[in-house]
């Protein structure tokens, strides 16, 4: 409501702009001898660039700088607001003003529709610009409905009435005295006094909506966030966590904007009373998450990230946005035209139970240089990449690497529309290796210098074919890529820091010269990639109805030493592709998939189906991938067949119901979460109730229940439902 008061007094601010040259039209004018007072009657119209005022009677005293208007007053402002009143008296500078029987209509857009907020008062008084008082004020954000039976407007669903409302612009607050909350015309709540921040203040300290939960680890508990603005450019949210079984925990979130960047900080901590081996001890737990970016000038910027936790399970147990791997880094980067420069350093904390933290790499430093020419047709384009990187570990291999990748590409288009790309690629690396178990010689090597150099050649051919029908344009494009490689590309005598065991071929990788991650080990076998793409597009809308892409690769020699299911360890790769289908406006199906070349079963698929109707939609998602199996048959990473389901139904005009779940169906059903939400929201009022049951499969806290009830009064006490 405070927001409305502020807009209201902007309505009569025309006096600040007014002067003796205001355009005034009326049926009749009366002047005094010195022409210091003007009395206009009958269809009076005062026109200014900020407003138009209409009234039956207007009196202007140029000597005392007072303007008064009476009878059928209407003011149309440039911001779209409309004021109706019986009487207005104000000085020329709007230092003081009196308005009687006012009705203010302020426009707003809600869900694409123009609506009005309504404020009425018997009397409005303003003093010295910094103090305003409304007597017998009423505010509503609801639309008024006309009742055909009674031939009157029904009372609004929600409105606030107060005997007195004070807006103090110095203290930046709005105070209400003897206030009532009315629902459908009946007072349901009386408040002798309450206040809220002034609309002039964008941010105000105070409690935010709490959340409640029940978990195996905590029992019943609640998060109670408190918001506090530190300045115009920084703020903080403090969220204590209280629970039935554990000591309180504290989460602090800090945000700050600078002229050239921003910073976000998050800290949490607690002291747990635990019994270990029948001995009580205090266990300190917590985490830190801080990141920021700073633009030094138009071409250079610096960024950092700091993420650490006291133990593997802490963030998961306390529901502080759990991550498998916490990353800390610092980067200094520069973009200059088509060139890129970067100096970086990394630290990692791996929270996976099966991973040995002593083998986690530390990178200090990493230097990246990239020089590229503009991508032009019928011109020899170049791309130069230089990387220097230094790996440290508590246990395991340490190495330094200087790697250079030089690419030359010549793209051209033949007369028949065929696209050709000729490529020459030179790769060279110099390595210093420590504590390395050489898989070729089976010898332990320490402080050894090694080098590797290998060229590659490539040729890419594609030819688009078009078909125009009445309403659709169809495009069919076959594509072939030939890559000539050498055995040195996959050099097992140097450490593999790019982790090729995680590689799994998909369509995005298919036509890359280097399909693996990093540059330590590339494909030693020459290959040919081939595929087709089909797209149908509605004319004049650029809306794709159907997109289908399918491809495969043939390696001339078997890629040795790769996992069995990478997709490229045999001569013929798996079949990869993706598609998007829109058979009707209400249906959208898309998927990325990998099909086993031997039995044509689905090995990997990421699929989403969305079905929309007028008042409902159904979303189905599936993420399916096979286990990562080493060449020796060892299971390195378990497979998944994860589903997500969400159904949303709108019923009546303002009610909405949502139900959702995420689970894995790889043999035995494994639930991750399920929940529901019921929401009511109209143009002026809203409320929601939600419940989620979460399965973290964390040994400390495997399950939790989260409840939330939210209440929102538009323009008065709003919350995100």
Describe this structure in words.
This protein is mainly beta. The chain is 3% helix and 63% strand. It is built from four helices and 47 strands. It is elongated. It starts with a helix and ends in an 8-residue tail after the last strand. Mean pLDDT is 86; it is low at 1-20.
Features of this protein?
721 residues, mainly beta, twelve-stranded antiparallel sheet, 3% helix, disordered N terminus
* Terminus-to-terminus distance: 19 Å
Number of helices: 4
> What's the overall average pLDDT, rounded?
86
> Strand-residue fraction?
over 45%
**pLDDT < 50 runs, ≥5 residues:** 1-20
The helix content is under 10%
Assembly type of the chains comes to single chain
Largest sheet: 26 strands, antiparallel, barrel
Q: What structural class is derived from the secondary structure elements?
A: mainly beta
Q: What is the 3D shape? A: elongated
Number of strands: 47
Radius of gyration: 35 Å
């Amino acid at each position: 409501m405070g927001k409305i008061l502020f807009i209201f007094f902007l309505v009569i601010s025309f006096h600040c702009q007014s002067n003796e040259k205001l355009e005034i039209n009326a049926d009749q004018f009366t002047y005094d001898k010195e022409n210091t007072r003007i009395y206009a009657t009958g269809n009076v119209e005062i026109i200014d660039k900020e407003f138009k005022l209409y009234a039956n009677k207007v009196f202007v005293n140029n000597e005392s700088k007072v303007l008064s208007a009476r009878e059928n007053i209407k003011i149309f402002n440039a911001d779209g607001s409309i004021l109706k009143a019986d009487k207005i008296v104000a000085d020329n500078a709007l230092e003081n003003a009196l308005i009687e029987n006012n009705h203010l209509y302020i426009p707003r857009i809600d869900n694409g529709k123009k609506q009005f907020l309504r404020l009425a008062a018997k009397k409005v008084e303003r003093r010295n610009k910094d103090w305003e008082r409304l007597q017998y004020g009423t505010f509503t954000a609801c639309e008024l409905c006309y009742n055909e039976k009674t031939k009157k407007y029904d009372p609004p669903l929600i409105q606030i009435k107060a005997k007195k409302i004070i807006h103090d612009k110095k203290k930046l607050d709005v105070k209400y005295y003897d206030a009532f909350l009315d629902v459908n015309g009946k007072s349901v709540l009386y408040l002798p006094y309450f206040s809220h921040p002034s609309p002039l203040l964008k941010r105000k300290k105070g409690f935010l909506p709490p959340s409640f939960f029940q978990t195996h680890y905590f029992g019943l508990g609640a998060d109670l966030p408190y918001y506090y603005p530190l300045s115009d450019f920084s703020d903080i949210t403090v969220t204590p966590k209280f629970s039935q079984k554990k000591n309180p925990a504290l989460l602090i979130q800090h945000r700050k904007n600078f002229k050239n960047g921003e910073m976000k900080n998050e800290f949490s901590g607690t002291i747990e009373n635990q019994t270990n081996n029948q001995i009580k001890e205090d266990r300190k737990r917590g985490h830190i998450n801080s990141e920021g970016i700073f633009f030094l000038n138009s071409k250079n910027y610096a960024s950092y990230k700091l993420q650490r936790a006291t133990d593997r399970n802490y963030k998961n147990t306390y529901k502080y946005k759990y991550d498998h791997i916490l990353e800390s880094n610092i980067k200094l980067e520069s973009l200059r035209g088509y060139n890129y420069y970067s100096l970086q350093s990394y630290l990692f904390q791996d929270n996976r139970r099966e991973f040995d933290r002593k083998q986690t790499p530390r990178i200090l430093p990493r230097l990246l240089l990239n020089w590229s020419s503009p991508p032009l047709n019928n011109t020899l384009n170049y791309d130069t990449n230089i990387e220097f990187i230094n790996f440290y570990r508590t246990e395991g291999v340490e190495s330094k690497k200087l790697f250079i990748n030089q690419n030359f590409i010549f793209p051209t288009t033949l007369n028949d529309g065929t696209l050709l790309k000729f490529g020459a690629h030179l790769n060279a690396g110099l390595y210093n290796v420590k504590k390395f178990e050489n898989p070729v010689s089976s010898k332990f090597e320490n402080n050894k210098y090694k080098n590797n150099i290998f060229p590659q050649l490539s040729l890419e051919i594609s030819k688009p074919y078009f078909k125009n029908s009445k309403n659709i344009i169809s495009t069919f494009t076959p594509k072939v890529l030939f890559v000539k490689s050498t055995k040195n590309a996959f050099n097992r005598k140097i450490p593999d820091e790019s982790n090729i065991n995680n590689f799994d071929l998909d369509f995005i990788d298919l036509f890359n010269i280097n399909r693996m991650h990093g540059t330590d080990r590339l494909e030693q076998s020459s290959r040919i990639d081939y595929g087709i793409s089909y797209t149908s597009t509605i004319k004049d809308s650029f809306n794709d109805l159907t997109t289908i892409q399918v491809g495969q690769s043939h390696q001339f020699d078997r890629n040795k030493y790769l996992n069995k299911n990478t997709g490229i360890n045999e001569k013929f790769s798996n079949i990869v592709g993706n598609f998007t289908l829109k058979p009707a406006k209400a249906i959208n199906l898309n998927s990325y998939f990998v099909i086993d070349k031997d039995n044509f079963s689905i090995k990997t698929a990421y699929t989403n189906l969305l079905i929309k109707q007028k008042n409902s939609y159904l979303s189905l998602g599936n993420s399916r991938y096979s286990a990562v199996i080493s060449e020796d048959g060892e299971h390195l990473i378990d497979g998944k067949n994860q589903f997500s389901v969400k159904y949303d139904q709108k019923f009546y005009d303002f009610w909405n119901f949502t139900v959702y779940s995420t689970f894995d169906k790889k043999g035995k059903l494994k639930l991750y979460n399920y929940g529901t939400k019921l929401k009511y929201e109209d143009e002026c009022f809203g409320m929601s109730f939600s419940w989620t049951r979460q399965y973290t499969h964390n040994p400390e806290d495997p399950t939790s229940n989260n409840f939330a009830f939210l209440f929102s009064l538009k323009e008065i006490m709003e919350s995100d439902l």
